Amino acid sequence: HALVQHASAHGDCVVEIGSFRGTSAAILAMGLRAASSNAAIVSIDPPEAQPCNAAHVRLALQQIGQHRRLIQIPQTSEKAHRLLRPSVASLILIDGDHSYEQVRSDFTNYADVLAPGGVLLFHDYGSGDHNALPEAFPGVRQAVDELVFGDNRFTPLLLAHTLMVFEKRPT
User: Fold this and answer.
1) 20 vs 123: CA distance, rounded Å
2) Per-residue pLDDT tens for 86-111?
3) Strands, sheet with 89-94, edge to edge from the N-terminal-most edge strand
4) Which of 7, 61, 75, 128 has the most C-beta neighbours closer than 10 Å?
5) Of 38, 37, 47, 92, nearest to 72 (Cα)?
C-alpha cells in the first residue's frame, strides 16, 4: 500500500505486467483506495498465457469493490506498451515472463511510460542467499542489475523480500 500511496500523485494509472490470479492487482487497488486516488489499474497479460486469468483478476477486484478502475489489455507487453502514453503511470509492476530477454524488453518499453517520481517494481528479483530463497528467476536479477542499476533515471529505493523497487528521478 505504501508504495502505491507514495507514487499515486505522479500519474493517472498503475500498470501491472503479468497478473496471475489478480492478487497483486487487488493489493494495488487497495493502495489506490487508501490514497483516495482515482487512478486506473492497467493489467497486461496475454490470454494464451493462462486463459482463465483475466476472469480471476476481475473477480479479485470485484470482491473488494474496485473492479471499475480495472483496464485489462489482453496482449503481450511488447504490444500493449504502444497503447500507453509517456509519463502516464505512477507505478509499474514488472512480473510477467521472468526471462532475461523479457524483463529487458519490459524495462526498455515501459521506462518512459513511468512518470517522474513514480516507482518501478520488479517481482522475483530478490531470491538468493540474502533471504535463503533459491535463485528461481536469475533472468530478473541479471536484467535489473545490468540495465536499471546503471540507468541514471532511476534511484534504488528498497529490496523487500523478492521485490526490488526503484523511483524514477524527476526530470
Assistant:
1) 12
2) 999 999 999 999 999 999 999 999 99
3) 70-73, 40-44, 13-17, 89-94, 114-122, 163-168, 154-160
4) 7
5) 47
